[in-house]
Predict the structure of Envelope fusion protein.
Amino acid sequence: MVNMVVRNLKALVVLVTISLSKLSKSDDWILAKQDIVHPTSGLILQYKSDYRPANKIVTLSTVIPMVADMCYLIPISALKKIPRCNLTIDTVNFINRDSATTVRKTSKLLRRRKRFLTDIVSIGMSSAALSLSTMNMIQTASLKQEMKSVTETIRVLQKTKYTQDAQILQLTDGQFKLAMELNSTQEAINRTMHLVNQHTDTLREHDDAIRRIGEFSTFINNKLNAFMHNVEGILKGNLNLHFIHHDDIPKVIEYVINATNISFEDNNSSISMIDLVTRLLVRQEIVCIPTIQMRASTFGVIIGELVFTSYFAASNHDEKPFFVYEPIPIPFNHQQKRVRLAQMPAYVAIQPDSRQFVRWSPEEAEPCCFEVMTSCRVNPVIRKDLEDMCIYQVLTSAPLKSCRIESYLEPIFVRKVRNFWAISMNSSTKCHRATPMDSDNYKIMNNNAITLPPTSLLSAKDGAALSCDYFYLPGLPIQSHSRLVLYQKLTVNAV
């Protein structure tokens, strides 16, 4: 049986006694964007947000002109794949770094250029952990199509477009279209390389400048190392956008948000926007497009273009949203043992009309942030065969045949659910209101004890704190709009 006791003591206390039993089968259920409590099974479904499956892939490519000196910023394993970099030492002195001067003479011999020098060089690729293994068929097909289109379009880009500016390109209708120019990214790289060359000459000519330039050279070196480490991070599976200059990041973030159709809720989250956008990355690739003919520029010899291609998970606005809940199993006493529901997913998303489910394990849910974002790059298969799921049986009041229990050894369980406290103990306990007194004098007051059963939900109407025999509960802020849906046999009560 399920017992609900309401005590009016200045503070409203909701106590729910939980026991394990089987309910009569019913196909009726009610889902709401609120926290749900099922006293029979001791399960709380804490509402997080709406969710739209990421069934699309949005591709953005960052193109950065590659000068000869940038070969030394590429990881060694990738450097060997770029023939232009292998020839740079022998040929760089033949090409003027300043377009206004003549070609310098050198005693070194030129190597014979091979035909493969202009082929596109794949430096490396990396995918987000668990993302590919948890994709559904729609998302997988979209990713494969985008990858194929990117490969074909890069070859066209190699033949038709050469640029000396850093840019963001969006793949649209099988063609790269200019989304924005990353002026700060290109200027920072060019300026840094130019300063390195300037200070190198200065160090050769003026020994007395070493101490003055030392600190600034260290600063420049740190910037170059950061770029190199970001490339290494991508190749090792740490997907990131840090190769883009921080002045260009706001434009990139705004563009990705609009392209992916994913909204961000304002809930005072401490997670930065760049981190949230990075969580949508599914895959990244780095390729080098060698130039057909090396050419001089103000900042060095341009030998090709580095293309960073980023694949973002995206959703459709016209899709019906799922409701995302975090299952919280409350321990309770059953047959002289302390148990709780076992094998619960970290999160579950439910579509109320179609009754479809999506569930995430703790590992799959790690990159997700449902309280802030309306989607996630980890997109498990949407399930339709729900009759064998414990949560489905809970919501439909069906016999709990698929629910499993496990032992819970801790004597006290306390969890905050919105403006409620979920409490579970071995036995009942007594609590008193803990109201701080501003006066130094004593005060006579009526502070009657509240007896809590072994398992209960508790909420103080006036936000007062409670001091119990074995624990202390701080006061919770009053939330007039927050409500709790209580599943009780075949009825649903709003508390």
